[in-house]
Amino acid sequence: MRSLRCLSAEALAAHAPAALQSLDCVAHNLYPLLFKASYLLEQADLVQALLVRWPLEEFRLGALLGPGADHPEDLRDRPCRPCLEACVRGLRGHVLRAESRTRLRLADLTGLRDVQEPRCRCRRTLGRWGRTELLARACFELQAEPRVARRPTVEVLADLFVTNGNFEAVVRALRPAGPAPLRLLCPSFRADSLRPAQLLQVVRLAGPGALRRLEVVHNVQLHAGHVEQLLAQVRFPRLTALTLPAKAFDAPPAHGPVPHHEDSHLTAIARALGQMTQLTELSVSFSRLTGKIQELLGSLQTPLRTLDLANCALNHADMAFLADCPHAAHLEVLDLSGHDLASLYPSTFFRLLRRAAPSLRTLTLEECGIGDQHVNRMVLGLSPCLQLQELRLLGNPLSARALRRLFAALCELPGLRRIEFPVPRDCYPEGATYPQDELAMTKFDQQKYEEVAGELRAVLLQAGREDIQASTPLFGTFDPNIQETRQELGAFLLQSFRSALEKFSRALEQME
Known about the structure:
- By secondary structure, the protein is an alpha/beta fold.
- 42% of the residues lie in helices and 10% in strands.
- The mean pLDDT is 91.
């Protein structure tokens, strides 16, 4: 329930012209509540004015928009473009004010959540990439202002998302030539569509000493030599989460494949990871790591809570190490997609599952060859996972009957809230093979699928588990970062394809 203070703040914010004239009379401890009310009502002019006059030492956007005692509503999933642009304009105005009484020392712009369906009334959102560019341009423009030479610096925390499209703006903001009234700090960094040299340059500038999360994804084409160079030249003493792109552990092209015991790049990478005393999340999907897991993970100083090894071509030795290593008992998020676990490594996989059961919250086993003959053992293996919240099983050859059996057992898991289940094998033409390509995946009997999906929902309802969402997102779930930069990613992929064709043509000419 909203407090009287909250209702009063909303009433004032609803009349923006009157509020703008009254700001000098508002008590300093009411500014946070008035800011949240203004953001909720999308009063951009008032949001900007509040930031210009902000009387407190800290401005933390995520905390201000989150639920509180006076205002219980959570607004963090409303990255409203007009309000966020007003925040940046307000910060700019704050450091340019003629008065020297400014107290703001820290502006934390982290904590927002990008969602598929905008909740703000204007329906205009500003994603992470757009927020990065907006803030970078504001920081750079302020560096040219002669009025800020002697002003105190305001530290600005932001989760940066850098691609080739905003790379230059971010570099200019992070490498000021003169006084910088807004000093950009980066606790979380995501990179896509960058060359390796660009990645190294911008990560160095981003202040790796403060970096907590580093995501290098999709179209940053790294090999093991690049990863070794990045981790050797840039220290990450506080890093807790690391994501590397596909093929990041492949040997440099000039070297060709090398035996595992001679892989100096892997040894150097493992040594660098072992020096990260706070690392608890590691994602290295779509890298060939056959027989290398023990060397990669064995020297880590802290137990991993998140581990993504999807499509890493693991062998029996890798699975045996995972099942017995110290990380297993601490895992909360585990992805082993793309491995034939139930057939090739049943004993080690279920031993791993048993050790992870007390802590496991999210388990992804897509395209793991789990068929009807494995369901009973899967039920036994999952039954101790009482903390499990999400289970993803897309791409497995399970029949409707097997899925009903599985759903009935999953209803016994009290924490479960989401199941991603495959299109039942019965819905595909007879003789369909697994794993499926994208074309084959879409050629199923839609009407029969809807019937089975209805039966599975009925199983949940009969067990009183309306709180479990069950779906079949064939082409993946919504990714706001990809959605926001899809045009640039498409252009980057097209250019990469053209470059590959040119190299192929030159190779043919040389052969002739």
